[in-house]
Amino acid sequence: MGESRPLRNGVFVAIVGPSGSGKDTILSYARERVRHRPEFHFVRRIVTRTAAGDAEEHDTLNEQAFAAALQSGAFSLHWAAHGLRYALPKSVDHHVENGSVVIANVSRSMLGELGSVYANVTVVHLSAAPEVLARRLAMRGREDAAAIEARLRRSAKAIAERDAAITLDNSGPVEIAGERFVAILDKAAAFAAVCEQI
Q1: How far is CA 144 from CA 55, 137, 141, 148, 149, in A?
Q2: What is the mean pLDDT of residues 125-134?
Q3: pLDDT of 7-61, one tens digit each?
Q4: Nearest to 21 by CA among 153, 149, 125
Q5: How many Cβ atoms sit within 10 Å of the Cβ of residue 3?
Q6: CA distances from residue 170 to 22, 56, 114, 190 in whole angstroms, order as listed
Q7: At 16, is the secondary structure helix, strand, or coil?
Q8: What is the pLDDT of residue 63?
Q9: Average of pLDDT values for 82-107?
Q10: Beta strand extents in the chain (DSSP E only)
């Protein structure tokens, strides 16, 4: 396989959205719903920040270990945001190449690059009403009111600029958006099954 050729047998499902939209919650809900189906692979991000309790599903590396892993080719994708470094493990490529549906929480800044790495990409943009986002961010206790307001302004701009994404509102009970997300995954799995037969 040539290095420049996008991996095409499976589907990469990217979930994006502003802080407070509930990405980890929706991913946890969907993971539980499809836990007995081997065609789905939920990817744990690697982040240079310690996980905050059960709210965040990721593995942690310090800056030095992250740099060494990057140098050794251990990541399929990597990016920086908000003073942190993020990556997905190289195993993602193997799963996509073998016809699986890979689901990962990624930065909106990575969406342009995804299409050059994976031929079949579905982008799900998770959103929530501004007052819901503000309440969830305040409950985290990481930022003061001014920082939360600035974050909400940035997310509003990003929503206006998004392209070719499925929009999923997560303002209400998790089951509503969760079931819609599972339906999106089912559609991706059906598409991957067809790709494998071609």
Answers
A1: 19, 9, 8, 6, 9
A2: 83
A3: 889 999 999 988 788 999 999 999 999 999 999 999 999 999 765 554 556 788 9
A4: 125
A5: 4
A6: 7, 17, 24, 25
A7: strand
A8: 93
A9: 94
A10: 11-16, 40-42, 45-47, 58-60, 75-81, 84-89, 101-105, 121-127, 166-169
**Looking at residue 1, what is its pLDDT?**
38
Closest CA to 130 of 157, 108, 111: 157
pLDDT of residue 160: 42
Contact 131, 148 (CB under 8 A): no
In single-letter form, the type of residue at position 196 comes to E
133 touches 51 (CB < 8 A): no
In degrees and rounded to multiples of 5, residue 88 shows phi and psi of -115, 145
Closest CA to 137 of 126, 149, 125: 149
Residue whose C-alpha is closest to residue 71's, from 63, 83, 80: 63
